Structure formats: C-alpha cells, structure tokens
Fold each of these.
Amino acid sequence: MDPADFYTGIVAEIYGPLKSVSQDPEPYAAFIQQIGGPALELGCGDGDPLLELRRRGLEVDGVDSSSDMLERLRRRADEQGIRVTVFHQRMEALNLPRRYRTVFLAGPTFTLLPDDTTALAALRGIRAHLAEGGTALVPLFTPAPTSADQIGRVRTAAAPDGAELRVSAVAEQRDETTRTQTTLLRYERHHGSDSTVVERPWLMHWYSQDQFEKLAATAGLAVTAVTDQDGEPAPANDTDLLHFRLQAM
Ligand SMILES: C[S@@+](CC[C@H](N)C(=O)[O-])C[C@H]1O[C@@H](n2cnc3c(N)ncnc32)[C@H](O)[C@@H]1O
C-alpha cells in the first residue's frame, strides 16, 4: 500500500472516534493572521484544525490524499454549516488553481512522506504554490520507538452504529539509516457476528534540522525560523515537535 493511502477505509472510519485530542488551532490561526491569507492546509484529514479556522472566518483551503477523510470533513462541514474548499491530491503532486500566502501542515503529517525523494517533491509543490512573499509552516519531529509494553495494547472506541472499534500496534521496525519507522497497526471492527480485521504498515520518516534545511534549499526554499511549541528558537538536536518556517529563496 502507498503510504499516501494509509488513512482510507477502516482507518478513516476509526480515526475520528479514536482521536483523543484535536489539533490545537491556535498556532495555525496565529500564523495565518500574522502572514495573511489565503491559506492552504496540506493533509487536512477530517477537518482539524481546518474547520475551526474557517469558523473563525479565515480563508483556508485543504488538500488530502484520502477521499474517505475528505468525505468525513465535508460531512462535518455540512453539519456545522461551514463552507470549505478541499482538493483530493497528494502533497507530493500538488496542482492547484491558486497560490497561497501561507501553506501549512497541522502536526507532524510531513513525516508520513516515506522518503527524501517524496519529501522533495512535496517541498517543490509548496514552493510552486506560495504566493509572492508567502511563508510555509512545516511541523516535524523525530518519533520515539514504541515501547515494548505498548505493543499489543488495544485502544477501543464505539462507532456511531454501536460497533466496537479497536486499534493496536502489532510490531515495529526502525531503520536509523533511512530514518524510517514502520509500525504494523491492527484495526478491528466488531458488530454482532460481523468482524473486520485489517493490518496496515504505518510509516514515519524523519530528518535532522540540517537534513531538512538542505532538502528545502534543493526545492528553492530557505528555512527562516525553527521554533519549539512555545515559539522559542529550538536547539539543533531537539527531537520534539518543531515548527519550520520556509520562504522562497
Ligand atoms: C494524522 S492525519 C491528520 C489530519 C488532521 N490534520 C488532524 O489532525 O486530524 C494525516 C492526514 O494526512 C493525509 N496524508 C497522508 N499522506 C499524504 C500525502 N502524501 N498527501 C496528502 N495528504 C496526505 C492523510 O490522508 C491524513 O488525512
């Protein structure tokens, strides 16, 4: 399975009910207000934080590679009376009708791009879709290995139709050379005598600050700031979630 199709089918169905915390819209609202719109969220999924940003009157379009996630986003938008413009595309093959003053990802979705070649294509797409003087915001982190006691641990949630939804990590492989970690996740849906069980590899690919800066430069983007959760400049070896700001060179 292509990593861009991970959040489809049963994974998209379970994503909403199992989401423990929604993306905090604040940093992204502040970013758009500071730099200006229109804005584009890459990997907008089922609508957090895009829906809240739209509710605040900010002009934000969305892109996601999963039509199942976008269907959920559109349903939530309809329920909440929010108008949205979203595109079913992969961020490594972006081709949109307009340019944006701000382009951002909410949370570390960029680490779902499986290798440097795909990441470079996405950065080139970001560069091509930035309006004159625009800024991109890419959050990145280095994932920790899943601890042994978490392997096999099941999280459960209820589907709207009463089905029991379950997800657990079955196994994990980590490769420091390619900077990838693949966690085999088991998704289950049980309703009466009906059961579906699907196992999918969830891949994450990470970067040192230096590696990301070089990749961005190849795409014609300069890293203008790297900040931590509190908006403070981040030390070079920080593995927590950091916000990289990028501008055309
Ligand atoms: C972890 S979800 C985050 C969704 C949303 N921002 C949230 O916090 O609820 C990541 C999203 O990125 C999308 N995605 C993964 N790879 C992608 C790609 N190559 N291009 C566009 N979207 C992608 C997935 O389909 C999924 O909806």
Amino acid sequence: MKATPSRRYLDNAATSWPKPEPVLAAWNRAAREVGAAAGRAAYRSAVEADAIRQRARAAAARLLGGVDPARVALPAGCTLGLNLAIHGLVRPGDHVIATAADHNAVLRPLHALARRGIAELTILRCDGLGRVDPAAVAAAWRPGTRLVACPHASNVTGAIQDVAAIAAVAHARGGMLLVDAAQTLGQIPLDVAALGADVVAAPAHKWLHGTAGVGLLWARAGIEPEPLVQGGTGSRSESLDMPEAFLDRMEPGTPDVPALAACAAAADWLEARGLAATGADCRELAAACAARLRVIGGVQVFAATGAPIVSFTVEGYAPADVAVILEQAASIEVRSGFHCAACVHEHLGTSAGGTVRASFGPSNDRADVDAIVRVVETIRG
Ligand SMILES: Cc1ncc(COP(=O)(O)O)c(C=O)c1O
C-alpha cells in the first residue's frame, strides 16, 4: 500500500490515502456485484446489501470499544452524524458549551441554533496547542446547560482533550457530552464508556481508511435524538411518523452500500494490522517531523501529536504559498489555511492565514519527513 513516489501525500487528517487494497476490493465488489439497496427488499442481493450494513455496524461497534451495535447508526458521514446529534438533542432554551478546538461540523450547527435564538452557545477558549481546561467547563456551566461538545483530538494540532474529565464535569451537573472522534477513530483504540461520552460521531474515511459516504454515530441507551431528517427507513412504511428505533431515526434514506462494505473491510484490515501499532507509527513520524521543523529558524510548530498532525507556519510566507512550494518542489501534498476550524486560530496566534498542516498515515515513511523538512529549510534559506 505504498503511495506512488510521484506523490507524497501528507493530508491524511483530511482523508486517508491511499486506501488499502482490501478496502478498494470490498467497495468494488459491492458496487459491481451487489448493487441493491440495503434494508428494503427480500431478494438475495438486497439481503446481501443488508448483511454488508450489519457487518459495518458490527465493526463500528467493536472500534468504539465493544458497544451495542443497535446503538451505532451509520449516517452518510461524520458531519451529518454531528448534525443529527446536535439538532436532535438541543431543545429550545438550552445552553450548550463547545470549545474553540471544535471543527465547524460542530460549531456551525450550534452557531446556527444560537443565531436563530433556539439555544445559547458558549465557546470555551483553549491554550496555544488547542487544549481545553476541564475546569473551564465547570466555570461556564449555567442552570440551562444540557450539552457539552468537544473534539477528542484537534484536527489542527492533534491535541487530545481530557474527555474523561470534561465528561465528569458534565455528568456531575446532569448534562450530556458529545465527542467528535473524527481524528481518533482508527488512530487510537477507543472505548466510549471509559471516555465517559454520551454521544460519539466519527467518519469512516479518515484514520479508519474506509471511503467517504459513511460515518458513525453512537448514542448510549437512553439518549434518543429527535430525527433531524425524515424519510424512508424500510420499516413501518405504512406510517407517516418516523419509527421509534434509534437506527431508523438516524438512518433515513438509501445507504451507500459500497461505502459500508469499505468501512467493514477497513476495520478488518486495521485490526489485522494492529490499530494501536499502526497509529503509533504514524504519530512517531509526526513527532519526528515536528521536532525537526521546530529547530528551523522562523518556523513555528503547533503539534501535540496526540493525532499524527503537524501544523506550522513559516515566517514571511503565507501558509497557502508554503503549500504550493511544497508541492512544486517535492510533490508534497499538504493542506493550508484554517482547516474548517473557525475558532482555534485565535488561540494559536494564526488568525492571519491559518497554518500549513501535514498529517501522516501508514503509507508515509521517514523519506516523507526528510522531504518536507528539506523544502522548509530551503524556503528559510
Ligand atoms: C475534527 C473533525 N470533525 C469533523 C469533521 C467532519 O468530517 P467529514 O467532513 O468527514 O464529515 C472533520 C473533517 O475534517 C474533522 O477533522
């Protein structure tokens, strides 16, 4: 699974690439040979499509720490999962606490609710690495606070939040915790119960190495978001009301069966390879890259390497220009700018143009670290 040498892909935090062969094979087989809609009919290929969805669900339940598959919905992506949770749980008059480290997939739906006067939103500040102090959650608590949202890891710095401590604060006050695990699912072993999360959302196409088109949304028993999206479920079709079951309410519409097949195959691939060891290898590359960039004059590094993400700026150069130079000089593909995180840059001191972000996957190696360091050294001349 080595990337072609003509591309040094370092944007795995956006989406992992290249995808493992078994993932592509599973996607291809489902698209070419199964083809049918899942959960809608009784003919053989439709039943197989449904079995694929159940395999993906079982895999997702394993990856979240052995949870009940009946509580793991597979919506069309992480952004949709987060919106289903937020719009489905926040009630008029609620106060919600989020963090400056959150992604816009969390902040924008909450901000939209606040703008419409439906809920009040407090966005907690973070430190210069994107970490939030759990004591700040306690300090921001009000009588109407019902939901806290936080990322498990920042998609800009990789910093892991102290989710268990934040959960303890929320639970002691009768609130719920929504965790955005987009940057940790498939990167570090997860146990949602140990984290103390009440709801978790994540995509399949990032560190899990599935494809876009499917996300994970887990909610513990007793947490029943109102359905944000209404539509066909293949169940209770004679009724105009959405069915009561969590999965039906969170999965209306025809699912992306090839993406579900890819998700199940990706989980098998990662578990066989060793999820913890694979993630550790990626983080080691990120740590090596961060350490070597840090000693270059005029380079500022923002990397906690909780997830294998290294953000940096180069004095005198806009991040967008650095990204262009990296590609032109050494075919290095990185992202630059704000990384869909509206608030974190104020705390990093990178509000001018954001950062350059390199993120390392299992196909990267030391040569990729050497290549990026060499180009940045040359830029600084
Ligand atoms: C922290 C975080 N949350 C949510 C998302 C949204 O994921 P998706 O675009 O796959 O829906 C991303 C993607 O970049 C992310 O990094």
